[in-house]
Amino acid sequence: MADVSDGMDAVGLQDVGLMDARIAPLWRDVETFSHRVCGVAVTVRYVPTNRRASRVNAEEFKKFEGQWYRDLSPEPFIGLLREGSVVVIDGHEDGDTGTIGSNNIMLWKTRGAVGVVTSGAARDTDEIIKEKIPLYFRGPGRGIRPGRNEVESVNRPVTVGGVLVRPGDVVVADGDGRDRCPARAC
Predict the structure, then answer these.
(1) Which helix (H) or strand (E) covers residue 128, if one does?
(2) Where are the domains of the chain?
């Protein structure tokens, strides 16, 4: 990442694309550096929702949860993932909703994603570390998505860590930081 920043400096793009340092890696591999990410951005924006489950019992909530993921707020960007994709999520700085969990991040990996960068939170972090999926995020979250946030847009410009990221931008991340290189500058 420092080398990418040096290269951006050399072409007159000082401080362009450098994300807030609070977007940090969940884990680091200092042997093979498998936590590093370099790929092409597929963007998604999650926003707080006003659709809530009414007071329900556990069985009714399970139905609401299934409907949420299936109909109300699925993950339509999955079909856009290719080998080398980086899922870039504007999490609306939601610090306590686990927009990313072990189930969906493993699915994204099987579809070709090489990592995830988000301004939001993630849950199931022990499992994500065990699977060695690179994740750069604001911090852990506890709640699941249903009734908390919903997909607002896919493959539109998003803001993550104070940086505008467009679909197709090159995203690199390592222990030193996260950066976005506009496709026209790389």
Answers:
(1) helix 125-131
(2) 2-181
Q: Which of 91, 90, 135 is nearest to 109 (CA)?
A: 135
Q: What is the pLDDT of residues 118-142, one digit of tens each?
A: 999 999 999 999 999 999 999 998 8
Amino acid at 109: K
Query: Could you tell me if 43 and 148 are in contact, meaning their C-beta atoms sit under 8 angstroms apart?
Result: no
Taking the model in full, what pTM does it have? 0.87
SS3 content of the chain, % helix, strand, coil (to 5): 25, 30, 45
* Whole-number Å distance between alpha carbons of 176 and 136: 11
How many other C-beta atoms can be found within 10 angstroms of the C-beta atom of residue 169?
A: 24
Handedness of CA 136, 113, 182, 96 (dihedral sign): negative
Residue 132: name the closest of 33, 23, 38, 39 by CA.
33
The 10s digit of each residue's pLDDT in 3-57 is 666 666 677 766 667 888 889 999 998 898 889 999 999 999 999 888 777 777 8
Cα–Cα distances (Å) from 21 to 51, 79, 80, 160, 174, in that order, read 33, 30, 28, 11, 11
Domain 2-181 architecture: 3-Layer(bba) Sandwich (3.50)
The SS3 assignment for 101 reads coil
